[in-house]
Specification:
The protein has 9 helices and no strands. By secondary structure, it is mainly α. Helix 2 packs across helix 9 (about 230-255), helix 4 (about 85-105) runs antiparallel to helix 5 (about 110-130) and helix 8 (about 195-220) packs antiparallel against helix 9 (about 230-255). About 75% of the residues lie in helices and about 0% in strands. The protein has one domain (about 40-255). The longest helix is centred in the N-terminal third of the chain and has 34 residues, at about 40-75. InterPro entries: Bax_inhibitor_1-related. Belongs to the BI1 family. This is BI1-like protein. It is a multi-pass membrane protein. It is found in: Membrane.
Amino acid sequence: MYGYAGVSGGDREMKVSDKEMKDGGIDLESGEMLYPGIGYGENQLRWGFIRKVYGILAAQIVLTTAVSAVTVLYAPINDLLRGNSALLLFLLFIPFVLLWPLFVYQQKHPLNFIFLGLFTASLSVTVGVSCANTEGRLVLEALILTSAVVSALTGYTFWASKKGKDFSFMGPILFTSLFVLILTGFIQMFFPFGSTSVAIYSAMSAIIFSGYIVYDTDNLIKRFTYDEYIWASVNLYLDVLNLFLTILRMLRQGDN
């Protein structure tokens, strides 16, 4: 998980006079105010930015679904990955390598979308491998649960933001928690945990990634600048993907 908070785009706010609003020249119903104190013009620009980010995120999820389905259903690819651990480790390492050029060229079209597509596709292969080794019923359950949790947390964050709540304080807490989570997972590779410890680890993972969905959605509403649409979508994509894989692992453990 790679958290990132953009710089506020408040300096781009468009000023609108009270008289213009009263004269009916502006339809305030065209988009709800995202948070208290935001100007009308800034609000409209921010809504456009949010729609763009969620459009990119939807495209990433569609690509992930397609690549994962091919990995699961096309036997030669599935057998190749299962029988070649070195290739699988290489594919696991690729997304980390692609993050660097993706960050550097995030504002340079079309390189930003090219690297985003490669990044998403490489991660999708690992998702496909996880799904291929899991009963189809559990994959469907994980997909439904992830969709429900993401929808609920996203809706809550937009509602809370409208009421004036701020979640920026969660950044340091989540980063520290994620660092401990990764370190614990690394230790687990050499010193396997018992079933109870694994269950606790999975539950904490789900809580942390759920927290990141709230935090990154709040950043999307208030802090990412308009030219950071690629990085905003990457943050949310990783949040959703990590939550899905965590829920899938929990269901797999429960089924066993």
